[in-house]
Amino acid sequence: MRIEKSAGGVVIYDNAILLLRKYNGDWVLPKGRIEKDENMKEAALREVREETGTQAEVIQYLGEIHYTYKENWDETNRIHKTVHWFMMRSKSLETVPQKEEGFIEARYIQMERAVDIVKYDDEREIIKVAVNYFKKGEK
Ligand code: ATP
Q: Which of 4, 65, 97, 107 could form a disulfide with 122 if both were Cys (CB 3.0 to 4.6 A apart)?
């Protein structure tokens, strides 16, 4: 079994969260592989920049999620993946989706709605963690 490590961001602007829409309609968070020469925070910031065109800053670590998937539908090639997530803040609503990677839209979506529409349950839970921190910070 192969192991993959990625990192990504829950980027907040005002009370909205940055989501990417894939060519098939799925809404997901920006993330990607951690390269050899970088730590997980650097990877998360780079992936957010590359996939969404957003210059963000990290507020705090949110946690990790795990899932497995099959490479090429071959059961012998299962990949176990860990994704580390960071809560981030951006100063601009401007975005540029990375079309070459199959993302057709990068958009800030009101928090409660982002929780509803995001494709994967594990990403939904990470968004909820970020929303809780955000709401605590508001008081
Ligand atoms: P990365 O963005 O880290 O470079 P990738 O684009 O190569 O990764 P994934 O996004 O991990 O690959 O997708 C690989 C498979 O895992 C796909 O079949 C996808 O549907 C599934 N998948 C992606 N994200 C999740 C998730 N959060 N929970 C469960 N399955 C997921």
A: 65
53: containing domain: 2-135
- 118 near 54, Cβ under 8 Å? no
Q: Model pTM?
A: 0.96
> How many structural domains compose the chain?
1
Non-local (6+) Cβ contacts of 29 within 8 A are 8, 9, 10, 18, 19, 20, 85, 118, 123, 126, 127
Residues forming a β-bridge with 61:
86
d(CA 46, CA 57): 11
Confidence check: pLDDT of 101 > 80:
yes
- Which protein residue's CA is at the shortest distance from atom 28 of ligand 1? 120
The answer to whether 44 and 84 have CB atoms below 8 angstroms apart is yes
For the domain that residue 104 is a member of, what is the CATH number?
Answer: 3.90.79.10
Does the pLDDT of residue 40 top 70, yes or no? yes
Residue 3: band (very low, low, confident or very high) from pLDDT cuts 50, 70, 90: very high
CB-side neighbour CA atoms (13 Å) of 64:
13
Atom 24 (ligand 1) nearest CA: 120
Structure token digits, residue 51:
């996939």
